[in-house]
């Protein structure tokens, strides 16, 4: 009877104590969060309740297992298994605590600063710092788990003796990975590109959605995801439309006939922009920027507060001005001359007529 009650009492006591401590800690954090709602740390630390309970329960079982006198022939293996679980749960708890601290710090910074560029920069930095801390904790936890095996302890001296050679081999083998790792740190603290920035990469326009230590994800306007190594952004040029501020100037080009009413078109552009909610009112203009034998190039210019709005302004101007020209000034659209050549004077050799060309405009 004692052989049955003893393990039940030990395990039951460990579970009851674990649940009680978890409930007390969660209650204390909830009250602290209610008393100080401006500090999000207490609410974020409540996510640590489960790993804390796992750590506490495993530690209690590891310390009291010898008193249960259960499976004494396998006590070494069970003790090592409990040690491995304890190390893993401690690492889990450490990652949760570090994540809560980092997120709380970022939340307070974002609430205190209204500059979107600075907030995105800090967000990028804290995200990469959080990933680095999690990776370091994971490496230390794995190393601690391996050291619980006697064979690994005996091989420690040999591993340290050959660390120089292994380091050289690993550096050569992981050259690309290490390059991306340092490139990620350079992006985070060099303020080259930030989460939320609007970029143009390889002709694709999109928004930076995620930055890790090895890759960067860009969400395009049609909701595709372009994943690129972070080393690309430190070795090749790219456009960052959010650098130095989100405000942008957009242009729309029209190829028109020489008889196009430029002055009336300029007034129509102003009317279109006044009715466009995406236009921020900072600047606008219309000018003839080039001329060819058959057409002139007219450039319409407008401003907006960010990349999304400038896209809306450009498509609105292009659509409404083309529709206005088609309806009220069709002669201003580019034309291809399809008339036959005039007859030469008497006595001159006649010029051959050009081949028939389908009409592409109003002639």
UniProtKB/TrEMBL annotation:
The keyword Transmembrane applies. GO terms for biological process: transmembrane transport. The keyword Transmembrane helix applies. Keywords: Membrane, Transmembrane, Transmembrane helix. Gene3D superfamilies: 1.10.287.1260, 2.30.30.60. Pfam families: MS_channel_2nd. The chain crosses the membrane at residues 6-29, 78-95, 128-149, 155-174. Residues 343-363 are annotated as: Disordered. Residues 177-243 form the Mechanosensitive ion channel MscS domain. It is found in: Membrane. SUPFAM superfamilies: Sm-like ribonucleoproteins. One of its GO terms (cellular component) is membrane. This is Mechanosensitive ion channel family protein. It comes from Streptomyces spectabilis.
């Amino acid at each position: 009877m004692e052989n049955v009650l003893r393990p039940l009492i030990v395990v039951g006591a460990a579970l009851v104590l674990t649940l009680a401590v978890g409930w007390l800690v969660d209650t204390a954090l909830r009250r602290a969060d209610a008393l100080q709602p401006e500090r999000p740390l207490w609410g974020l630390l409540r996510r640590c309740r489960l790993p804390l309970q796992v750590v506490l329960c495993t530690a209690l079982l590891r310390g009291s297992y010898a008193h249960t006198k259960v499976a004494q022939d396998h006590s070494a293996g069970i003790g090592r298994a409990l040690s491995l679980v304890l190390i893993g749960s401690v690492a889990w708890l450490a990652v949760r605590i570090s994540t809560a601290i980092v997120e709380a710090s970022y939340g307070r910074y974002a609430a205190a600063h209204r500059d979107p560029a600075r907030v995105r920069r800090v967000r990028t930095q804290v995200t990469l710092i959080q990933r680095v801390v999690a990776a370091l904790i994971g490496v230390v936890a794995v190393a601690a788990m391996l050291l619980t095996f006697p064979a690994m302890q005996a091989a420690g001296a040999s591993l340290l003796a050959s660390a120089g050679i292994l380091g050289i081999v690993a550096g050569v083998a992981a050259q690309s990975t290490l390059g991306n790792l340092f490139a990620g740190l350079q992006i985070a603290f060099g303020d080259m590109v930030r989460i939320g920035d609007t970029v143009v990469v390889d002709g694709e326009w999109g928004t930076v959605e995620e930055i890790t230590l090895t890759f960067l994800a860009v969400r395009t306007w049609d909701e595709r995801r372009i994943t690129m190594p972070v080393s690309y952004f430190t070795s090749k040029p790219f456009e960052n439309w959010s650098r130095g501020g989100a405000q942008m100037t957009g242009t729309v080009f029209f190829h028109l006939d020489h008889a196009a009413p430029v002055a009336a078109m300029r007034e129509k552009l102003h009317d279109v922009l006044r009715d466009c909610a995406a236009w921020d009112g900072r600047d606008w203009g219309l000018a003839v920027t080039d001329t060819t034998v058959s057409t002139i190039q007219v450039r319409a210019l407008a401003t907006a507060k960010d990349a999304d709005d400038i896209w809306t302004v450009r498509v609105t101007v292009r659509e409404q001005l083309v529709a206005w020209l088609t309806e009220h000034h069709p002669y201003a659209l580019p034309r291809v001359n399809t008339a036959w050549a005039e007859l030469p004077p008497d006595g001159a050799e006649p010029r051959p007529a050009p081949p028939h060309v389908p009409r592409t405009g109003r002639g």
